């Protein structure tokens, strides 16, 4: 696909059910429950696990027994995460704003760089999140994030949600220079 971008990045924010005060004009309003359920829906996510999966810590062991590790297409900085775990984290931190990022990869590009398998996409996203968070002007230690790998369209893509654990900014829109630097 000559002339077409190999990676498309879309970044926006949504006001959640925890928002206090006036909702910004034109803001997307979405509950965290709806976000997490949408991102991890069965018909969109790659919920497979490699045959050689080793459960190597107690969190994974209990998660494997509770909801079968791999029955989720979603992970965060600590590993695979279920929709219910995502909801509990949001209830804990009560983010007023969640930034939503979609990274879509040209199919040929994804094949060429061998990032189509779920575990390779997971590794790519996980390894780049701290740098991404910093480039957007956030402190990675104050951010909770999760990514869901979708294979239900012509182009493999990831939905990434992130929010601050403790709000540190008064403006929700990210400065254009930060967004351009990230892209």
Please give a structural write-up.
Strands 2-1-5-7-6-3-4 form a seven-stranded mixed sheet, with helices on both faces. The chain is globular, with a radius of gyration of 17 Å. The chain starts with 6 loop residues before the first strand and ends with a helix. Helix 1 runs antiparallel to helix 3. It contains six helices and seven strands. It has 183 residues and is α+β, with helices and mostly antiparallel strands.
List keywords for this structure.
single chain; 183 residues; alpha+beta; 7-stranded mixed β-sheet; 6 helices; globular
User: In what order do the strands lie side by side in the largest sheet?
Assistant: 2-1-5-7-6-3-4
Spatial gap, N to C terminus: 20 Å
Write down the overall geometry: globular
Radius of gyration: 17 Å
Question: Helix and strand layout, with pairings?
Answer:
Elements lengths: L6 E9 L12 E2 L2 H8 L18 H10 L6 E3 L2 E2 L2 H11 L3 E9 L1 H6 L5 H18 L7 E8 L6 E8 L11 H7 L1
Parallel strand pairs: 1-2
Antiparallel strand pairs: 1-5, 3-4, 3-6, 5-7, 6-7
Helix pairs in contact: 1-3
Concise account of the structure shown:
The chain has 183 residues and is an alpha+beta fold. It has helices at residues 32-39, 58-67, 83-93, 107-112, 118-135, 176-182, and strands at residues 7-15, 28-29, 74-76, 79-80, 97-105, 143-150, 157-164.
């Amino acid at each position: 696909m000559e002339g077409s971008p190999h990676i498309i990045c879309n970044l926006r924010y949504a006001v959640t059910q925890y928002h206090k005060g006036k909702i910004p004009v034109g803001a997307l309003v979405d509950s965290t429950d709806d976000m997490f359920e949408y991102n991890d829906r069965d018909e969109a996510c790659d919920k497979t696990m490699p045959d050689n999966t080793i459960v190597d810590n107690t969190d994974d062991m209990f998660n494997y027994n509770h909801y079968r590790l791999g029955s989720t297409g979603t992970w965060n900085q600590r590993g695979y995460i279920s929709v219910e775990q995502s909801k509990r984290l949001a209830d804990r931190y009560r983010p007023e704003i969640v930034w939503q990022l979609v990274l879509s990869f040209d199919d040929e590009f994804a094949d060429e760089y061998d990032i189509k398998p779920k575990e390779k996409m997971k590794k790519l996203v996980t390894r780049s999140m701290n740098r991404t968070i910093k480039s957007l002007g956030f402190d990675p230690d104050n951010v909770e994030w999760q990514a869901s790998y979708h294979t239900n369209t012509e182009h493999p893509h990831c939905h990434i949600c992130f929010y601050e654990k403790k709000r540190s900014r008064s403006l929700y829109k990210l400065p254009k220079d930060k967004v351009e630097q990230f892209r």
